[in-house]
Amino acid sequence: MSRKKRSPSHPRPQPRPRQLGSLLELRQHAKELSVVIQSLSTPTTDTQSVIYQGVTYTQADIRSLYQDLGWALHDAKNILHNRQLPRWNDLNAPGKQVIKLACMAEHPDAAFLTVNLGRRFSDQALKNKRGLALRNGDIIRATLMASGLPGSLALNVELSESRERNSPLHIHCIALIPEQLLEAFSRSLKYRLAADYFEHAGNKAVLIKPVRTAGTLARYTCKDILKCMPMNNRRFYASKDLTEPSRLFYEELRQWCKSLPEIIAELPEVKPTPLDQPGTPCALQLMIKEKQIQMKDRKRQTRQEEARLKQARKLLREQPTPDDQYNQQHLPKTLDTLMRRTREAA
Protein backbone atom coordinates (compact mmCIF):
# COMPACT_ATOMS: atom_id res chain seq x y z
CA MET A 1 0.00 0.00 0.00
CA SER A 2 1.62 3.23 -1.17
CA ARG A 3 1.80 6.19 1.11
CA LYS A 4 0.31 9.45 -0.01
CA LYS A 5 2.97 12.04 -0.60
CA ARG A 6 2.63 15.19 1.43
CA SER A 7 2.39 18.25 -0.77
CA PRO A 8 5.04 20.84 0.04
CA SER A 9 3.53 23.71 1.98
CA HIS A 10 4.24 27.19 0.68
CA PRO A 11 6.14 29.30 3.22
CA ARG A 12 4.26 32.28 4.54
CA PRO A 13 5.65 35.62 3.30
CA GLN A 14 7.99 37.16 5.85
CA PRO A 15 7.60 40.80 6.89
CA ARG A 16 10.62 42.96 6.19
CA PRO A 17 12.44 44.56 9.13
CA ARG A 18 11.34 48.00 7.92
CA GLN A 19 7.69 46.87 7.89
CA LEU A 20 7.92 45.47 11.41
CA GLY A 21 9.50 48.72 12.62
CA SER A 22 6.73 50.77 11.00
CA LEU A 23 4.05 48.54 12.58
CA LEU A 24 5.64 49.01 16.00
CA GLU A 25 5.75 52.80 15.48
CA LEU A 26 2.10 52.97 14.40
CA ARG A 27 0.95 50.72 17.25
CA GLN A 28 2.70 52.92 19.80
CA HIS A 29 1.30 56.07 18.18
CA ALA A 30 -2.23 54.62 18.19
CA LYS A 31 -1.94 53.65 21.87
CA GLU A 32 -0.78 57.16 22.82
CA LEU A 33 -3.57 58.81 20.81
CA SER A 34 -6.13 56.54 22.46
CA VAL A 35 -4.90 57.58 25.91
CA VAL A 36 -5.07 61.28 24.96
CA ILE A 37 -8.61 60.92 23.56
CA GLN A 38 -9.76 59.03 26.65
CA SER A 39 -8.30 61.67 28.96
CA LEU A 40 -10.03 64.49 27.08
CA SER A 41 -13.34 62.60 26.77
CA THR A 42 -13.62 62.25 30.55
CA PRO A 43 -12.10 65.52 31.80
CA THR A 44 -11.69 66.36 35.43
CA THR A 45 -10.52 69.51 37.14
CA ASP A 46 -6.92 68.38 36.53
CA THR A 47 -7.26 67.23 32.89
CA GLN A 48 -8.85 70.12 31.03
CA SER A 49 -5.98 69.88 28.54
CA VAL A 50 -3.34 67.28 27.60
CA ILE A 51 0.16 67.92 26.28
CA TYR A 52 1.20 65.33 23.69
CA GLN A 53 4.43 65.60 21.67
CA GLY A 54 4.87 69.20 22.71
CA VAL A 55 1.34 70.25 21.62
CA THR A 56 -1.51 71.14 24.00
CA TYR A 57 -4.85 69.50 23.16
CA THR A 58 -8.29 70.30 24.53
CA GLN A 59 -11.78 68.87 24.04
CA ALA A 60 -12.12 70.92 20.86
CA ASP A 61 -9.29 68.82 19.33
CA ILE A 62 -10.92 65.41 19.88
CA ARG A 63 -12.20 65.32 16.31
CA SER A 64 -8.74 65.88 14.82
CA LEU A 65 -7.25 63.32 17.23
CA TYR A 66 -9.76 60.73 16.02
CA GLN A 67 -8.72 61.54 12.45
CA ASP A 68 -5.06 60.99 13.32
CA LEU A 69 -5.92 57.71 15.04
CA GLY A 70 -7.86 56.53 12.00
CA TRP A 71 -4.97 57.37 9.67
CA ALA A 72 -2.50 55.48 11.90
CA LEU A 73 -4.73 52.39 11.96
CA HIS A 74 -5.29 52.48 8.19
CA ASP A 75 -1.55 52.87 7.57
CA ALA A 76 -0.86 49.82 9.72
CA LYS A 77 -3.50 47.83 7.84
CA ASN A 78 -2.02 48.87 4.48
CA ILE A 79 1.45 47.71 5.52
CA LEU A 80 0.14 44.16 5.96
CA HIS A 81 -1.67 44.14 2.56
CA ASN A 82 -4.51 42.03 4.01
CA ARG A 83 -2.02 39.42 5.27
CA GLN A 84 -1.38 38.24 8.81
CA LEU A 85 1.92 38.18 10.60
CA PRO A 86 3.45 34.69 10.89
CA ARG A 87 3.65 32.90 14.20
CA TRP A 88 6.75 33.40 16.31
CA ASN A 89 8.17 29.98 15.39
CA ASP A 90 7.70 30.77 11.68
CA LEU A 91 9.23 34.25 11.87
CA ASN A 92 12.72 34.46 10.36
CA ALA A 93 15.81 35.45 12.33
CA PRO A 94 16.01 39.10 11.12
CA GLY A 95 12.36 39.62 12.06
CA LYS A 96 12.93 38.15 15.52
CA GLN A 97 15.92 40.47 15.99
CA VAL A 98 13.72 43.52 15.26
CA ILE A 99 11.22 42.34 17.86
CA LYS A 100 13.94 41.68 20.44
CA LEU A 101 15.38 45.17 19.96
CA ALA A 102 11.93 46.76 20.28
CA CYS A 103 11.13 44.65 23.34
CA MET A 104 14.36 45.82 24.99
CA ALA A 105 13.66 49.43 24.03
CA GLU A 106 10.34 49.37 25.92
CA HIS A 107 12.16 49.02 29.25
CA PRO A 108 12.49 52.23 31.34
CA ASP A 109 16.28 51.81 31.71
CA ALA A 110 16.87 51.01 28.03
CA ALA A 111 19.92 52.76 26.54
CA PHE A 112 20.99 52.97 22.90
CA LEU A 113 24.72 52.37 22.29
CA THR A 114 26.75 53.14 19.18
CA VAL A 115 30.29 51.76 19.32
CA ASN A 116 32.79 52.53 16.55
CA LEU A 117 35.15 49.58 16.76
CA GLY A 118 38.90 50.05 16.84
CA ARG A 119 40.82 48.63 13.88
CA ARG A 120 42.90 46.23 15.97
CA PHE A 121 39.91 44.77 17.76
CA SER A 122 37.73 44.48 14.62
CA ASP A 123 40.49 42.68 12.69
CA GLN A 124 40.83 40.14 15.49
CA ALA A 125 37.07 39.72 15.89
CA LEU A 126 36.53 39.06 12.18
CA LYS A 127 38.88 36.08 12.43
CA ASN A 128 37.21 34.76 15.57
CA LYS A 129 35.51 31.40 15.04
CA ARG A 130 32.43 32.47 17.00
CA GLY A 131 31.83 35.47 14.73
CA LEU A 132 32.02 39.23 15.06
CA ALA A 133 28.53 39.83 16.51
CA LEU A 134 28.85 37.09 19.12
CA ARG A 135 32.31 38.31 20.13
CA ASN A 136 31.02 41.86 20.63
CA GLY A 137 27.98 40.60 22.49
CA ASP A 138 30.07 38.55 24.90
CA ILE A 139 32.32 41.52 25.72
CA ILE A 140 29.41 43.96 26.26
CA ARG A 141 27.52 41.38 28.32
CA ALA A 142 30.58 40.75 30.51
CA THR A 143 31.08 44.50 30.96
CA LEU A 144 27.42 44.93 31.97
CA MET A 145 27.54 42.14 34.53
CA ALA A 146 30.88 43.39 35.92
CA SER A 147 29.14 46.73 36.59
CA GLY A 148 26.31 44.97 38.45
CA LEU A 149 23.81 45.47 35.58
CA PRO A 150 21.56 42.92 33.83
CA GLY A 151 23.28 41.09 30.99
CA SER A 152 20.33 41.41 28.60
CA LEU A 153 21.21 43.04 25.28
CA ALA A 154 20.62 42.97 21.54
CA LEU A 155 23.01 44.35 18.94
CA ASN A 156 23.55 44.71 15.20
CA VAL A 157 26.82 45.11 13.32
CA GLU A 158 27.03 47.62 10.46
CA LEU A 159 29.65 48.23 7.79
CA SER A 160 30.61 51.73 6.55
CA GLU A 161 32.95 51.21 3.61
CA SER A 162 33.63 54.95 3.17
CA ARG A 163 35.75 55.12 6.34
CA GLU A 164 39.50 55.29 5.76
CA ARG A 165 41.22 56.23 9.02
CA ASN A 166 39.27 53.82 11.22
CA SER A 167 37.71 50.42 10.97
CA PRO A 168 34.56 50.36 8.79
CA LEU A 169 32.74 48.26 11.41
CA HIS A 170 30.51 49.71 14.13
CA ILE A 171 27.69 48.32 16.25
CA HIS A 172 24.29 49.53 17.46
CA CYS A 173 23.12 47.97 20.70
CA ILE A 174 20.29 48.28 23.22
CA ALA A 175 21.02 47.36 26.83
CA LEU A 176 19.60 48.13 30.28
CA ILE A 177 21.78 50.90 31.76
CA PRO A 178 20.48 53.53 34.22
CA GLU A 179 21.05 57.10 33.09
CA GLN A 180 23.43 57.90 35.95
CA LEU A 181 25.80 55.09 34.85
CA LEU A 182 25.97 55.95 31.15
CA GLU A 183 29.22 57.92 31.32
CA ALA A 184 31.12 55.32 33.36
CA PHE A 185 29.93 52.49 31.15
CA SER A 186 30.93 54.46 28.05
CA ARG A 187 34.53 54.70 29.33
CA SER A 188 34.63 50.96 30.02
CA LEU A 189 33.40 50.06 26.55
CA LYS A 190 35.84 52.44 24.88
CA TYR A 191 38.74 50.71 26.64
CA ARG A 192 37.49 47.24 25.64
CA LEU A 193 36.30 47.81 22.04
CA ALA A 194 37.56 51.14 20.67
CA ALA A 195 40.86 52.01 22.35
CA ASP A 196 42.58 52.82 19.04
CA TYR A 197 39.60 54.54 17.37
CA PHE A 198 40.53 58.00 16.04
CA GLU A 199 37.74 60.43 16.99
CA HIS A 200 37.16 63.15 14.40
CA ALA A 201 34.38 65.38 13.01
CA GLY A 202 32.15 64.75 16.02
CA ASN A 203 32.31 60.94 15.70
CA LYS A 204 32.86 59.55 19.19
CA ALA A 205 34.24 56.10 19.86
CA VAL A 206 31.27 55.27 22.12
CA LEU A 207 27.97 57.15 22.21
CA ILE A 208 25.25 56.16 24.71
CA LYS A 209 21.88 57.84 25.20
CA PRO A 210 18.50 56.85 26.67
CA VAL A 211 15.90 55.33 24.34
CA ARG A 212 12.97 57.57 23.37
CA THR A 213 11.01 55.73 20.64
CA ALA A 214 11.25 51.93 20.49
CA GLY A 215 9.81 51.31 17.02
CA THR A 216 11.83 54.02 15.29
CA LEU A 217 15.03 52.86 16.95
CA ALA A 218 14.46 49.18 16.09
CA ARG A 219 13.84 50.07 12.45
CA TYR A 220 16.96 52.24 12.30
CA THR A 221 19.15 49.65 13.98
CA CYS A 222 18.05 46.90 11.56
CA LYS A 223 18.18 48.92 8.34
CA ASP A 224 21.14 46.87 6.99
CA ILE A 225 20.34 43.55 8.65
CA LEU A 226 19.66 41.77 5.33
CA LYS A 227 23.00 42.76 3.74
CA CYS A 228 25.97 40.39 3.65
CA MET A 229 28.98 40.82 5.92
CA PRO A 230 32.63 40.03 5.09
CA MET A 231 33.74 36.43 5.74
CA ASN A 232 30.04 35.44 6.16
CA ASN A 233 29.89 36.94 9.65
CA ARG A 234 26.50 37.17 11.26
CA ARG A 235 25.18 40.71 11.64
CA PHE A 236 23.21 40.43 14.89
CA TYR A 237 23.25 38.99 18.37
CA ALA A 238 20.76 38.84 21.25
CA SER A 239 21.05 37.29 24.69
CA LYS A 240 19.01 34.12 25.24
CA ASP A 241 16.96 35.57 28.10
CA LEU A 242 15.19 37.86 25.59
CA THR A 243 13.50 34.99 23.71
CA GLU A 244 10.43 34.50 25.89
CA PRO A 245 9.67 38.21 26.60
CA SER A 246 10.11 38.96 22.89
CA ARG A 247 7.76 36.13 21.95
CA LEU A 248 5.04 37.55 24.20
CA PHE A 249 5.71 41.07 22.92
CA TYR A 250 5.38 39.85 19.31
CA GLU A 251 2.18 37.98 20.11
CA GLU A 252 0.62 41.24 21.37
CA LEU A 253 1.62 42.96 18.12
CA ARG A 254 0.24 40.05 16.10
CA GLN A 255 -3.12 40.09 17.89
CA TRP A 256 -3.35 43.88 17.47
CA CYS A 257 -2.76 43.53 13.72
CA LYS A 258 -5.46 40.84 13.53
CA SER A 259 -7.97 43.09 15.26
CA LEU A 260 -7.30 46.16 13.09
CA PRO A 261 -10.51 45.80 10.98
CA GLU A 262 -12.64 45.65 14.15
CA ILE A 263 -10.83 48.58 15.76
CA ILE A 264 -11.29 50.70 12.64
CA ALA A 265 -14.97 49.76 12.42
CA GLU A 266 -15.53 50.85 16.04
CA LEU A 267 -14.09 54.32 15.47
CA PRO A 268 -16.73 57.08 15.57
CA GLU A 269 -17.58 58.44 12.16
CA VAL A 270 -15.75 61.69 11.67
CA LYS A 271 -17.61 63.77 9.11
CA PRO A 272 -15.48 65.81 6.73
CA THR A 273 -15.34 69.53 7.05
CA PRO A 274 -18.37 71.06 5.27
CA LEU A 275 -17.60 72.77 2.00
CA ASP A 276 -17.96 76.52 1.71
CA GLN A 277 -21.13 77.87 0.21
CA PRO A 278 -20.97 78.97 -3.45
CA GLY A 279 -19.97 82.59 -3.74
CA THR A 280 -18.34 82.63 -0.30
CA PRO A 281 -14.54 82.76 -0.57
CA CYS A 282 -12.81 80.09 1.49
CA ALA A 283 -9.73 80.69 3.62
CA LEU A 284 -7.40 79.36 0.91
CA GLN A 285 -8.84 81.68 -1.73
CA LEU A 286 -8.50 84.66 0.61
CA MET A 287 -4.89 83.75 1.33
CA ILE A 288 -4.09 83.43 -2.41
CA LYS A 289 -5.74 86.78 -3.11
CA GLU A 290 -3.74 88.43 -0.32
CA LYS A 291 -0.51 86.99 -1.73
CA GLN A 292 -1.35 88.30 -5.20
CA ILE A 293 -1.94 91.80 -3.81
CA GLN A 294 1.39 91.66 -1.98
CA MET A 295 3.20 90.63 -5.18
CA LYS A 296 1.61 93.49 -7.13
CA ASP A 297 2.70 95.98 -4.44
CA ARG A 298 6.26 94.64 -4.56
CA LYS A 299 6.39 94.92 -8.37
CA ARG A 300 5.07 98.50 -8.23
CA GLN A 301 7.67 99.44 -5.62
CA THR A 302 10.41 97.83 -7.74
CA ARG A 303 9.36 99.82 -10.82
CA GLN A 304 9.33 103.06 -8.83
CA GLU A 305 12.81 102.39 -7.47
CA GLU A 306 14.13 101.64 -10.97
CA ALA A 307 12.61 104.88 -12.33
CA ARG A 308 14.23 106.93 -9.52
CA LEU A 309 17.61 105.32 -10.14
CA LYS A 310 17.34 105.99 -13.88
CA GLN A 311 16.52 109.67 -13.27
CA ALA A 312 19.41 110.00 -10.84
CA ARG A 313 21.86 108.55 -13.37
CA LYS A 314 20.59 110.96 -16.04
CA LEU A 315 21.09 113.95 -13.74
CA LEU A 316 24.58 112.82 -12.90
CA ARG A 317 25.48 112.57 -16.58
CA GLU A 318 24.15 116.10 -17.32
CA GLN A 319 25.98 117.82 -14.46
CA PRO A 320 29.57 118.92 -15.31
CA THR A 321 32.31 117.15 -13.44
CA PRO A 322 35.22 119.02 -11.78
CA ASP A 323 37.42 118.03 -14.73
CA ASP A 324 34.96 119.57 -17.17
CA GLN A 325 34.90 122.83 -15.19
CA TYR A 326 38.73 122.97 -15.10
CA ASN A 327 38.98 122.36 -18.85
CA GLN A 328 36.46 125.12 -19.62
CA GLN A 329 38.52 127.67 -17.63
CA HIS A 330 42.11 126.75 -18.57
CA LEU A 331 41.95 125.00 -21.94
CA PRO A 332 41.54 128.26 -24.09
CA LYS A 333 44.51 129.89 -22.36
CA THR A 334 46.66 126.78 -22.96
CA LEU A 335 45.73 126.73 -26.65
CA ASP A 336 46.58 130.45 -27.07
CA THR A 337 49.98 129.89 -25.47
CA LEU A 338 50.76 126.97 -27.76
CA MET A 339 49.73 128.94 -30.91
CA ARG A 340 51.90 131.94 -29.90
CA ARG A 341 54.97 129.80 -29.31
CA THR A 342 54.44 128.15 -32.69
CA ARG A 343 54.35 131.56 -34.49
CA GLU A 344 57.45 132.80 -32.65
CA ALA A 345 59.37 129.65 -33.57
CA ALA A 346 58.43 130.10 -37.23
How does this model look, in words?
The protein has 346 residues and is an alpha+beta fold. It has three domains: 17-88; 90-256, Replication Protein E1, Chain: A, CATH 3.40.1310; 285-339. The protein has eleven helices and seven strands. It has helices at residues 17-41, 62-80, 93-105, 119-126, 132-146, 182-193, 214-221, 243-258, 260-266, 283-318, 322-345; strands spanning 50-52, 55-57, 110-116, 153-159, 169-176, 206-210, 236-238. The model is unreliable at 271-280 (pLDDT under 50).
What distance separates the N and C termini? 147 Å
Give the total of domains: 3
Mean pLDDT: 80
Oligomer: single chain
Q: What CATH architecture of the largest domain do you see?
A: 3-Layer(aba) Sandwich
How many distinct beta strands? 7
For the record, the CATH class of the largest domain is Alpha Beta
Summarize the structure.
With 346 residues, this protein is an alpha+beta fold. It is 53% helix and 10% strand. Strands 6-3-5-4-7 form a 5-stranded antiparallel sheet, with helices on both faces. The protein has a two-stranded antiparallel ribbon with strand order 1-2.
